[in-house]
Automatic annotation (TrEMBL):
InterPro entries: cNMP-bd_dom, cNMP-bd_dom_sf, RmlC-like_jellyroll
Sequence ranges assigned to domain Cyclic nucleotide-binding in this UniProt record: 9-120
Gene3D superfamilies noted in UniProt: Jelly Rolls
Protein name: Crp/Fnr family transcriptional regulator
Amino acid sequence: MERYNYFRQFHDISPADYNLLTEHLQPRSFKKGESIIVPGQVQRELYFVKSGVQMAYFDTDDKTYVIDFSYFPGLCAIAESFSFQVPSKYFITCLTDSELAYLSYEQLQKLLDQSRAIERLFRRMIEAMLADMVDLPIDLRAMTIEERYRSFCRKSPQLLQLVPHKYIASYLGIDPTNFSKLFNQVKI
């Protein structure tokens, strides 16, 4: 029910369309530290997070740059790789043991052709994702590090206990030492 309500934030999908979408999901488990996608691999499945936390990132030199975190009830994907069926430039790695369900690219395309509501749902989810992608670099430049930290804590407070702080610091564009100070001094 929680995932259904999550989808309805984007589009008021009927229970019948929701069941059409979810009846084809297949389960898959990953262990902490296991990669779901690596650079050069085409993401052929769209993952629906049932439990756990995953991180999308890339490495250059000796530094990890975190792009995003995924967790229930959201989706887990490298959008470019899945949508266009091209090799990924990024990793998705499980930060905790994770239970996911997936649809193949081909299955999703059939569902999008079959149901206008499912197609509209995914279009609106992509639009929301694009808006977030536009907002993030603006927020990184316009907000102070404390404002970024507070905003993150409002949106995803549970991640403070589940994700190594160095990764949250990377995502927020904050030096790990400054993140540690914020974590210890700013009460949320």
